[in-house]
Amino acid sequence: MTDKQNRLQVEFAGRTFRNPITTASGTFGFGAEYSDFVELSKLGAVTTKGLANVPWEGNPVPRIAETSGGMLNAIGLQNPGIDTFLSRDYPYLRSMGAGIIVNVCGKSEKDYVEVVEKLADTDVELLEINISCPNVKEGGIAFGQNTAAAERITRAVKKAAKQPVMMKLSPNVTSITDMAKAAEAGGADAVSLINTLTGMRIDVRKKAFMLANKTGGLSGPCIKPIAIRMVYETAKSVSIPVMGMGGVHNTEDVLEFMMAGATMVAVGTANFNNPYVTSEVIDGLEAYAEKESMDHISEIIGIV
Q1: pLDDT tens-digit profile, the chain (304 residues)
Q2: CA distance 48 to 248
């Protein structure tokens, strides 16, 4: 039997993570908000909120609405900017022993490259390039719904990056596999999926949209079957590793993503109603590996 301490360890995009669990960008802040509930060093990594080259205010309120089995958000990638992260949040995460995945957002190729260049001298494990947010009017989604644009932005970021590059893909496309192949052709070291699905809610009493942005990104358990299908299709179509996300709320959900082909799995919306969920999921994976007498958790990746 392999050393139980390393049974959950995974290799992903050329880096080693203590286990396959991270947080979905935008649902865990920069880690400090959850440190009273979760030992950050226990996670495979903390994935940060999206960071731009300058601070973003985000969209007007209201920008969150509950739905059956999930939620809609139109935050618009509000963030303090890369400089604040480097001076305030990065040192804190390192002091806590956390693995770090930085989510990068932008409105132009230049924006993305500027952030990536500022991260060059850090020892963050991985860069997640967000080309798939449905709640910003420029950039992001324009790259994430066009294969040629996705390949171009991937190539530009990869050229500037010192860390492995993972492209975050949008489900709001005709073919997720075409987008994944474009990212791979651009030199991506990995892909993550899915980001939120575009949705809408209307307040019938007020006869008005529930979100000031009208539309928002749908997340939560209701999107998991779509995410599982897209992870499965993507894992079969590219040779680079896949990080799966979308509706993960427990250990069984993580196992489902891994069996579909994901090497790592991000927990998102569940953090809002159970701040302990990431820690519980990791404990659940340990118990599963023990029960199944597994040498290593990677044995189940793509098993279906």
Answers
A1: 446 779 999 999 999 999 999 999 999 999 999 999 999 999 999 999 999 999 999 999 999 999 999 999 999 999 999 999 999 999 999 999 999 999 999 999 999 999 999 999 999 999 999 998 765 654 555 688 899 999 999 999 999 999 999 999 999 999 999 999 999 999 999 999 999 999 999 999 999 999 999 999 999 999 999 999 999 999 999 999 999 999 999 999 999 999 999 999 999 999 999 999 999 999 999 999 999 999 999 999 999 9
A2: 18
Contacts of residue 248, Cβ cutoff 8 Å, sequence gap at least 6 = 224, 254, 257, 265, 266, 267, 268, 270, 281
Cα–Cα distance measured from residue 252 to residue 300, given in angstroms and rounded to the nearest whole number? 12
266, containing H or E segment? strand 264-267
- Beta carbons within 8 Å of 256's beta carbon, 6+ residues apart: 224, 228
Q: Is 160 exposed, middle or buried (0-12, 13-18, 19+ CB in 10 A)?
A: middle
- Six token digits for residue 296: 């290593």
- Rounded to whole angstroms, the Cα distance separating 30 from 8 reads 24
Q: Which of 82, 133, 211, 277 is catalytic?
A: 133
- Cβ atoms of 215 and 270 within 8 Å: the answer is no
**What's the distance, Cα to Cα, between the start and end of the chain in Å?**
24
Q: Can you identify the CATH homologous superfamily of domain 4-61+79-198+221-300? A: Aldolase class I (3.20.20.70)
Domain boundaries, the chain: 4-61+79-198+221-300
Handedness of CA 229, 20, 69, 146 (dihedral sign): negative
105 is catalytic: no
| Residue 199: CB atoms within 10 Å | 21
- Determine how many CB atoms are found less than 10 A away from the CB of residue 1: 9
CA distances from 38 to 162, 244, 295 (A): 29, 21, 26
